[in-house]
Amino acid sequence: MQQDQTVQWFPGHMARTRRQIREYLPLVDAVTELLDARIPMSSRNPELLDLIGRKPHIILLNKCDLADAQATRAWVRHFESQGAGVLPVDCRSGRGLNAYPALVQDVLSDTIRKNIEKGMPGKPLRIMVVGIPNTGKSSFINRMAGRNRAKVADRPGVTRQNQWFAIGSGIELLDTPGVLWPKFDDPQVGDRLAFIGSVKDEILDSELMAVRLLEVLQAEYADRLSDRYGVMPQPDDMPWQVLEQIGRKRGMLMRGGEIDAERTANMLLDEYRSGRLGRITLETPTQTV
User: Fold this and answer.
1) Among positive and negative, which fits the CA dihedral 207, 213, 215, 221?
2) I need a labelling partner for 75 at 20 to 30 A (CA). Which of 86, 135, 204, 284 fits?
3) What's the pTM value of the predicted model, to 2 decimals?
4) pLDDT at residue 5 in the model
């Protein structure tokens, strides 16, 4: 995996994003972080917690329809134990998002009480939305704000390129232009991001990625390979051998009967990303904590 092509421009972007988050934090009551439910830890920037400090924190486990439901429940418990409000959602279909306003009210109950005591019972609850690329930040805001993206007037101290959106229930979302980038210090993080399509395929070796994905699937979800492709990996089968078995089952052959490994690899990655292999989570709290 050619990770250096992705990492080399990370520092400049991240430094600017850090400045933006610090600048806007005093203007918001809480931070909502979008994570990919299939790889919750790998799809976050670990610096965020230090940046937001003690600011109330809400985590949306997006694309939960593609993730293992049991694993998602474990992640909800894990993040709740750290003091965050957590909600599994699917921002494309809208699943779970109806519960978001109530979660905000719950997480910010102290803020609401203080606003009432100050004689400001209707003061809007303002939330900064953050997330690394492809975790669904824009989809979330579009869903919550509706097609018209009801833009609220720019607040003092906020540049015009940052937008506030009213979503009802007295809640306003802040969409900032800054982007949080993941950290690739751990090669497995880079692999997991590649598996779900968060790293451009053009800079990846698809066969290598497919083999690495199969290594995970053999260990945790071998039944999915049997159900989908009619192959049942044996304990001593190497992942590249399983890829060949899948290619042969699918008839992905070149002249002479040799397996078209690249075509098979691309098919496997596409079918994992689209959910055709079933609901699969690639990391659990016990594996990453």
Assistant:
1) negative
2) 204
3) 0.88
4) 35
